[in-house]
Design a protein that fits this description.
Strand content: 5-15%
Shape: elongated
Oligomer: single chain
Structural class: mainly alpha
Strand order of the largest sheet: 2-3-4
Radius of gyration: 63 Å
Largest sheet: 3 strands, antiparallel
Helix content: 55-70%
Order of helices and strands: HHHEHHEEEHHHHE
Number of helices: 9
Number of strands: 5
Distance between the termini: 179 Å
Length: 254
């Protein structure tokens, strides 16, 4: 009997110990639940505050009249007028005669003054110099035979070259320089003589051109136009014009 009672008592103690353990576990669970509840409370309170603030904002918007909620009308930008352009100062028109008279060009020779002026006499001389050999025979008075130790140069009558002796290679020019066809020498002639010489030269050049190339060429047409111009030249006016040019010219060498 004593052994059975001891076992019973032992079992009772075990049951009591198990019961105590279970009670401790329940207490721990309750504590954890309380802590979770405490953590959830601030989160809920924050959410509640946010909702309340949103409600307050909505209520504030509800109090504003609709007229104030409309966006203000935009002001139209005034188009800026383009800046007015200043009128350019009018340039003074200077005639050719004024410009020529105002400019004082220094010429070293009389021939240079006539040539640069573009006067009629200057044009007669220039056009005659381009074909003088059709109207003028030059040189004249050249020796029939070359000097001793000299030979004639082909195509250059009156000019000889030394081929033997001490002066080999030396050139001797026997032409008449006082009457040679040059601008200076032609300027000494009257416009009437220059006109006749030019007309003769154009006619002879035209004949030679037709013999070589035939009629109807461009050069022939140019010669015909030049011939018309030459025939219309007034010699007296041409000489007077040249005289005026020389009076106004600043010539440094006569």
């Amino acid at each position: 009997m004593s052994s059975e009672e001891d076992e019973f008592e032992f079992d009772g103690e075990e049951e009591s110990e198990e019961g105590e353990v279970e009670e401790d576990d329940e207490e721990d669970d309750e504590e954890d639940d309380e802590e979770d509840d405490e953590e959830e409370e601030p989160i809920k309170s924050n959410k509640k505050r946010q909702v309340e603030s949103e409600d307050d904002d909505d209520s504030d918007d509800d109090d504003i009249p609709l007229s104030q909620l409309k966006s203000p009308p935009r002001k139209k930008k005034k188009s800026l007028a383009p800046p007015k352009k200043k009128a350019a100062p009018k340039k003074k028109v200077v005639s050719k005669q004024e410009s020529k008279s105002s400019e004082q060009i220094v010429h070293s020779t009389i021939a240079g003054a006539i040539f640069d002026s573009g006067c009629v006499k200057g044009m007669l001389i220039q056009r005659l110099l381009c074909r003088w050999w059709y109207a003028i025979e030059w040189p004249r008075g050249i020796p029939d035979k070359p000097p001793k130790n000299y030979d004639s140069m082909d195509g250059m009558p009156g000019i000889f070259v030394c081929t033997s002796g001490d002066d080999v290679g030396k050139i001797k020019d026997c032409r008449d320089f006082e009457n040679r066809p040059s601008f200076t020498n032609f300027l000494k002639k009257a416009s009437s003589e220059l006109k006749d010489l030019l007309i003769t030269a154009i006619d002879e050049q035209t004949k030679a051109l037709i013999e070589v190339e035939g009629s109807g060429t461009v050069t022939e047409k140019e010669l015909k136009d030049m011939l018309k111009w030459a025939k219309k030249v007034n010699p007296d006016k041409s000489d007077k014009e040249a005289t005026k040019v020389l009076k106004k010219a600043n010539i440094t060498k006569q």
